[in-house]
Amino acid sequence: MAECGRVDSNTSGHTMDKSITLPPDEIFRNLENAKRFAIDIGGSLTKLAYYSTVQHKVAKVRSFDHSTKVHDKLYEIAVQEEVTARLHFIKFENAYIETCLDFIKDHLVNTETKVIKATGGGAHKFKELIERKLGLKVDKEDEMTCLIKGCNFVLKNIPHEAFVYARHADSEFRFQTTNPDIFPYLLVNIGSGVSIVKVESEDKFERIGGSSIGGGTFWGLGALLTKTKRFDELLQLASKGQHSSVDMLVKDIYGGSYACLGLTGDLIASSFGKSATADKEFSKEDMAKSLLHMISNDIGQLACLYAKLHNLSRVYFGGFFIRGHPVTMHTITYSINFFTKGEVQALFLRHEGYLGAIGAFLKGAEEDNPNQYSWGENYAGSSGLMSVSPDMNPMQRARSGTFDMLEMDRLERQLVNLPLLQDASSYIPDTVDLTEDAQAREYWLYCFEEALDGVVKRAVASQPDIPEAAERAEKFRQKYRHKLQTLRHQPFAYGSLTVRSLLDTREHCLNEFNFPDPYSKIKERENDVALKYYQKAVKSLDELSWEDRQFAIVKGVLAGNVFDWGAKAVSEVLESNPEFGFEEAKRRLEVYPGSLLQGPPHRCALFFVDNSGVDIILGVMPFVRELLSRGTEVVLASNSGPALNDVTNSELQILTERIAAMDPVIKSALREDRLTLVQSGSSSPCLDLSRLDKVLAMVVRERQTDLVIIEGMGRAIHTNYYAMLSCESLKMAVIKNSWLADRLGGKLFSVVFKYEVPAGKAH
Question: Where is the Damage-control phosphatase ARMT1-like metal-binding domain (predicted)?
Answer without folding.
Answer: 449-747
